[in-house]
């Protein structure tokens, strides 16, 4: 194929598109971006799961439990699976773009597990019982502590190694 006269590339050669996270979080280092997206993913997933489970609890039409063979699959199962995938992927992938997506997926997976922490500790479905409040308290503590750490460390300058490398 004859190269294009404009940029020296073949006409149909794949071009790397800039990460959507660059537009959403401009000026944030790639390493920090993963942590921020994990925090956002955790916060939004926790709130979303609480809303979804409340809709299931009050029997809103069309909203129900996920079951396999008549057995209810709690959302911590999906969280554990997602955390396993994120862990395995992060062993191999180190690009800034992947770090951002893995950070977001990590936050989502962790929220799915933490939201049912009381169930995992008591080994009983205490989601709507008083004991289930532990999961809410734990999630709020995670949101507050991580959010505070991100806010306090905001002013730190990025090192040369933290510079954006995802186009």
Provide an overview of this structure.
- The chain is built from six helices and two strands.
- It has a two-stranded antiparallel ribbon.
- A hairpin with a 2-residue loop joins β1 and β2.
- The mean pLDDT is 86.
- The longest helix is centred in the N-terminal third of the chain and has 28 residues, at 30-57.
- With 167 residues, the protein is mostly helical.
- It is globular and about 45 Å long.
Major beta sheet summary: 2 strands, antiparallel
Q: Mean pLDDT, nearest integer?
A: 86
Total number of β-strand segments?
A: 2
Specify the number of helices: 6
Relative strand content? under 5%
From the N-terminal CA to the C-terminal CA, the straight-line distance is 26 Å
Helix content range: 55-70%
Q: What structural class results from the helix and strand content?
A: mainly alpha
Run of helices and strands? HHEEHHHH
Radius of gyration (Å): 20 Å
Uncertain runs are: none
In which order are the strands of the major sheet placed? 1-2
The outline comes out as globular
Q: Which helices and strands, and how do they pair?
A:
Elements: H1 20-24, H2 30-57, E1 67-68, E2 71-72, H3 75-92, H4 96-114, H5 117-122, H6 133-152
Antiparallel strand pairs: 1-2
List keywords for this structure.
167 residues; mainly alpha; two-stranded antiparallel ribbon; 6 helices; 2% strand; globular
């Amino acid at each position: 194929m004859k190269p294009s006269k404009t940029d020296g590339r073949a006409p149909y050669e794949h071009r790397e598109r800039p990460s959507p996270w660059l537009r959403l979080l401009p000026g944030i280092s790639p390493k920090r971006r993963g942590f921020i997206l994990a925090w956002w993913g955790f916060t939004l997933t926790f709130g979303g799961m609480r809303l979804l489970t409340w809709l299931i609890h009050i029997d809103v039409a069309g909203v129900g439990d996920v079951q396999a063979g008549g057995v209810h699959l709690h959302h911590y199962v999906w969280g554990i699976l997602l955390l396993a995938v994120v862990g395995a992927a992060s062993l191999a992938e180190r690009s800034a773009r992947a770090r951002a997506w893995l950070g977001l997926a990590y936050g989502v997976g962790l929220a799915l597990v933490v939201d049912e922490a009381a169930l995992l500790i008591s080994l009983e479905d205490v989601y709507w019982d008083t004991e289930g409040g532990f999961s809410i308290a734990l999630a709020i503590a995670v949101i507050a502590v991580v959010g505070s750490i991100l806010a306090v460390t905001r002013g730190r300058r990025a090192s040369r190694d933290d510079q954006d490398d995802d186009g």
